[in-house]
Every structure is written in structure tokens, then in C-alpha cells.
Amino acid sequence: MPSQLKRFVKSHINRLAIALFVYELIFQLGSAVLLLAGTGLFQNEYFAMILCSALALLSVYLILGRPEPVPAPAGRFSPLKYLWLLLLFYGMQLLAICLTLPVERLLRGLGFSLEQAAEAAGGGRLSDPLMLFYTVLFAPLFEELLFRCYLYGSLRRFGRSFAVFSTAFLFALMHGNILQFLAAFLIGLLLAGIRERWGLRYAILLHLSNNALAILFNNYTENAAPVYGLYLFLLFGGTAALLLTVLRSFRPWREQLRQEQSLRSMLGCFFSSVCMLILILCFLALAALNLN
User: Residue 117 pLDDT more than 70?
Assistant: First the structure.
């Protein structure tokens, strides 16, 4: 890669990292300030998170400007595609659970209880109507606007595979939960693929559906047999869907990676940009502090 292009890419990634840092600072610090100093509705945790997410997203807009256009979606969406993609969400989650088990056992063996991390990864307990609105509606909307609109649009010019990987990595990292990292990364890959092929609205729809089902399963599987049956169907049906998708799409994916010869150079720029490295270290430290 020419040195001038390399400097341009790193400068762009550093600016993006600054925007993400400001976003998280406003979200975390703003929520904490409202909870400590606010009154009435502003002391509600989820209202504070909704308000601060909107302000944080505005800060990204002010730093990065309008989202850059990406190529028009290449496919037509349908109810069958929606069901198939929903199955893929759960196939990926089951895969992530299996691969994360050794890490979870190691951490528990070191004395960490991981109760809060496990509850957050499962969707949380339904205790407040605003919690439902935030988790099911506002969080998917804000996260998709941030990752699949602003960040994906910002990085798409450097290659489709690079944009898919880097936004999925940042999406997983910003969850700040070691038990969620792999699942969030795999889901981030899928959401970026949906964004690329069918458009942002369908990425929001699938993200919203996944969060709604997570709340449903985390609160009602123990006492409602139909809900537990649906959960098992999505897990094992999703595993079959994931296997079939990998077998059917492996060659096209490999060919795409071969065509994007700049991917390795772009990843090198991504992981060697100073601001991005600082951001990654901050989120790793935050995930470590959240262990209990």
C-alpha cells in the first residue's frame, strides 16, 4: 500500500475511533450524571440511557458528518428470508455459547461469579416498561445507526470485507462483556451482511427481533413450555441453518476475500492506528472491570 494512502486510511480510522470514544463517554458519563443528579424521570436508568444514546449519536454526526452512501442493496427481502436470518442469529449464538464455555469455566475457576455478565448476555430481567422500550426498540435503532449506518458507511470505501469485519469487531468490543463478545461479533458479521445485501432497515428489523426474543426467553422459558419449545426450535433449527449457509456460501466468501487483495493492508492500518489502539484498550479494560 502506498504510504500516502496508508496515512489517509489511518487518519480516517483515528477520526472514527475518536467519534466512538466520544459516543461512549457521553453515553456512560451522561447516564451516570443523570442517575446521580437528575430528578423524576431523569433518574430512571433506561430513560437516561435513551436520552444519552441520542445525544451520543448526535456527537458522532457532528464529528463524522452525514453517513456516506454505500452501494444499493442487491437483493429483495421476503418473510422466508426473515425467518432464515432469524434462525442464523440463534445458530450463531449457540456456536458462540459452545466456544465461550471454556473461557467462562476458566474465569469462574479464578473466582469470578459472572452473574451480571451472564444476565446481560441473556437479555436481562424484565423489571421496568422503559427497560422493554430501550432494549427492544431504542438500543437496536441507535446501535444500527451507529455501526451499520455511520461506521459501515465510513469504512465501506476501503472494501466490503474490511467494513464487515471491523464494524463487527467494534460492535462486539463496545458491549463490554466478555461472555457476549463472540456472539456479538458473529451477529455483527451477519447484521453487516444484511445491511450490505438488503439495506439498513432490515438490519434494524432483525436486531430488534433478536433483542425482543432475548427478553422473552430470559423471562419466560422457565414457566412457559411453548416459549421454551420456541427457544429450542430456534437454537437447533438455527444450527442447521448455519451449517447449510456455510456449506452453500463458503466458495463465494472465499472468492470475495481473494478479490479484496487490500484486506490485509486495511486490517494492518486498523490495528496499528494509535487512536483505535487506545480505544480497543479502553474497552478491554472496561470489560475487565465489569467482571464480578
Answer: no
Residue 122 pLDDT grade (very low, low, confident, very high; cuts 50, 70, 90) = low
- Please tell me the distance from the alpha carbon of residue 167 to that of residue 231, in angstroms, as a whole number: 28
- Residue-wise pLDDT for 162-194, tens only, equals 999 999 999 999 988 888 899 999 999 999 999
What amino acid is encoded at 23 in this protein?
Y
CA dist 1 and 199 (Å) reads 31
| Cell representation of residue 86 | 432469524
**Structure-block grid coordinates of residue 250:** 463458503
47-84 pLDDT, tens per residue?
A: 999 999 999 999 999 999 887 777 777 778 999 999 99
Q: What is the pLDDT of residues 266-286, one digit of tens each?
A: 999 999 999 999 999 999 988
